[in-house]
Amino acid sequence: MDADQETKTTANLDVSTETSGSLSPLSADDSTSIDVNEIGKQLRDFVDTFPKQVGETYSIYKKPLNLFLVISAAAVAAAVANGVLDVLNSIPFVAPLLELIGLGYSAWFAWNYLTYAEKRQQLVEDYRQLKAKVTGQS
User: Fold this and answer.
1) Residue 68: its pLDDT value, please?
2) How many Å apart are CA 12 and CA 56, to the nearest integer?
3) What InterPro entries does the database record attribute to this sequence (predicted)?
4) In this predicted structure, what is the pLDDT of residue 59?
5) Residue 113, number of CB atoms within 10 A of its CB
């Protein structure tokens, strides 16, 4: 490039040093500017109404949500119990000891409740009472 072309190029640029400006192409009073107060108001409204909406949703779907929570808790409890039993089974002599305890309790239960007719009737009655308490039937 020679000197004449350079001066022509710089002569066509409109550089104003009188006013300082922003590097952003949007001005502060542009319609696309963000209104922080409006966002804050929307956030406050959301925080105010969110607990009410959750409560209303829970009251509508109470039974399915409770069922889901109970099933989830049972699954977690089964996983924890499985882990505990794995740890106990890895300890020597604990697994056979637990088997002996289980066999002893089963033998005691059979002798205590299943050998005589009046004890069997008492067991059936106790079972019915427990079932009525659990199901809510009085």
Assistant:
1) 95
2) 67
3) CAAD_dom, CURT1
4) 92
5) 14
Which tokens go with 67? 């069922």
Domain positions in the chain are 35-90, 92-138
Using CB atoms within 10 Å of the CB of residue 123, give its burial: 0 to 12 exposed, 13 to 18 middle, 19+ buried. Answer: middle
Residues counted in the chain: 138
**For 7-39, what is each residue's pLDDT tens digit?**
555 555 555 566 555 555 555 555 556 788 889
**Contact by Cβ (8 Å): 73, 66:** no
Asked whether the beta carbons of 1 and 7 are under 8 A apart, the reply is no
Other beta carbons within 10 angstroms of residue 30's beta carbon come to: 9
DSSP 9: H
Segment 75-89 shows an average pLDDT of 95
